[in-house]
Amino acid sequence: MPNPEAEAKKDLGNKAFAEKDYDEAIKHYTAAISIDSKNCVYFSNRSACYGSKGDWEKAANDAKECIKVNPEFIKGYYRLANAQSEQNEFEAALATIKQGMAVEPNNPQLQKQMRQIKAKRDNQRRVENATKTATSAAAENAPIRSLDPSVIKEVQDLQSQYRTTVKEFREVQGKIKRAQLSKRTSELTKNQLEELPKGSYSKLYRPVGKMFMLASESDIMTHLDETIAKEGKNETSLSSKLDYLEKRMKSQQQNIQELTKSASE
């Protein structure tokens, strides 16, 4: 049986979370935990608050405690994997999901999360490889001083094009990270709101530019769904552009190397 006093604190935390007052929500969930530390939901909810604030280390710690208290509570594995992924601990996150799926093999939320984390891991690896290429001294500082003036001019033009591509590549990287963050924040908020009992919150707000306006539950959910879909499409489009820019960088680098090599022979 849940402790009534702890449940009252949890309800206050749920209301604060729905109003995006994460610090207030954390205070109430912490109070609930101090009353009943054997209720995994309180740790799960506080983990979600820390995640919404971007404090992924604390989010992971609460998720671990949630699993420790109740290894059958699937949401704990989801919370922990999400926090680990946000800290680029992809293999640890995938291991956490496998632990959760050992409890509930066909859980659709964990299956979807596994696909997302694998994609994020693979994208991160691709970005790291491309970044190494982008900072390669072979392209940035090709040995051109002893070449024919006409070749020097051609190499310099290629190097200028290469640096422009590198700059564009890094800008797209930043846009992808912002799209991923917006999508994950909306997914996290939607999941948490879906867990709240109907009528457990008095006010809900949705962002409008840099402000927040009072909105109904249906408006909030519609807004979150639209944001998730929009940022998902944006991420897919930007990832395709990133692939193209990566190939262009490698091609430009190869052209510079071949040109300087042939001219030096």
Task: Describe the fold and architecture.
There is one protein chain. Helix content is 79%, strand content 3%. It is elongated, with a radius of gyration of 24 Å. The chain has 265 residues and is mainly alpha-helical. β1 and β2 (211-214) form a beta hairpin. A two-stranded antiparallel sheet has the order 1-2. The longest helix is centred in the last third of the chain and has 48 residues, at 217-264.
Task: Summarize this structure as a short list of keywords or feature phrases.
two-stranded antiparallel sheet, elongated, 265 residues, 10 helices, mainly alpha, 2 strands
> What class would the helix/strand composition place it in?
mainly alpha
Computed Rg: 24 Å
SSE string, helices as H and strands as E: HHHHHHHHHEEH
Broad shape: elongated
- Helix % is over 70%
Across the major sheet, the strand order is 1-2
The N- and C-terminal alpha carbons lie at a distance of 83 Å
Low-pLDDT ranges: 137-142
Short summary:
The chain has 265 residues and is mainly alpha-helical. It has helices at 4-18, 22-35, 40-53, 56-69, 74-86, 90-103, 108-134, 137-140, 149-195, 217-264; strands spanning 205-208, 211-214. The chain contains 10 helices and 2 strands.
How are the SSEs placed, and which strands pair?
Elements: H1 4-18, H2 22-35, H3 40-53, H4 56-69, H5 74-86, H6 90-103, H7 108-134, H8 137-140, H9 149-195, E1 205-208, E2 211-214, H10 217-264
Antiparallel strand pairs: 1-2
